[in-house]
Design brief:
CATH class: Alpha Beta
Oligomer: single chain
Strand order of the largest sheet: 5-4-3-6
Helix content: 10-25%
Number of domains: 1
CATH architecture: Alpha-Beta Complex
Largest sheet: 4 strands, mixed
Number of helices: 3
Structural class: alpha+beta
Number of strands: 6
Strand content: 15-25%
CATH superfamily: paralog of FGE (formylglycine-generating enzyme)
Order of helices and strands: HEEHHEEEE
């Protein structure tokens, strides 16, 4: 899915939850969104969860190593995308079988944009306030370094750029 705002991404997660008979993860009232952490429905991953999944047990810059020599096998970037989003799974997966964690579309996560805590907790959820939301993964027009597992960016939650998408998680 691409060209979705952050608000549309959380609404999608709720609708998918309802279709599956699960409790939606979010309460949405206008632009106020709260996360019910006890819900069993689909949701956006936290930034920490996203990076954990992207790394697939590695500590390297990308899930496939520390150099971008093989990036064209794993990621749609400015080197090989021809400026178009691609169907998920068209390139290699990481060691956990997850596709397109690097490149293709930037993925919305739950967290607000802000400084990272110097003493991170287990699965932190980012800044408590702020107008921007975090994006992860790099995109089809990104240079390879922006598709690293640790790279993060932020934008307004109403941005509907064609390079923005989502991935959902479920407890």
């Amino acid at each position: 899915m691409e060209r979705v705002t952050w608000f549309e991404a959380v609404e999608f997660a709720n609708r998918r939850s309802l279709r599956a008979g699960l409790t939606p993860a979010y309460t949405i009232s206008g632009t106020n969104v709260t996360w019910n952490r006890g819900a069993n429905g689909y949701r956006l991953p936290t930034e920490a969860e996203w990076e954990f999944a992207a790394r697939a047990g590695t500590t390297t810059q990308w899930s496939f190593g520390d150099t971008n020599g093989n990036i064209d096998y794993y990621a749609w970037t400015n080197r090989n995308s021809n400026g178009m989003t691609r169907e998920v799974g068209g390139l290699g997966s990481n060691d956990w079988g997850l596709y397109d964690m690097h490149g293709n579309v930037w993925e919305w996560v739950w967290d607000r944009w802000g400084a990272l805590d110097a003493n991170p907790a287990t699965n932190p959820t980012g800044a408590a306030a702020g107008g921007l939301r975090v994006l992860r993964g790099g995109g089809l027009s990104s240079v390879p370094v922006l598709a690293r597992s640790a790279h993060r960016d932020g934008t307004g939650p109403v941005n509907r750029d064609g390079r923005l998408g989502l991935r959902v998680a479920r407890p």
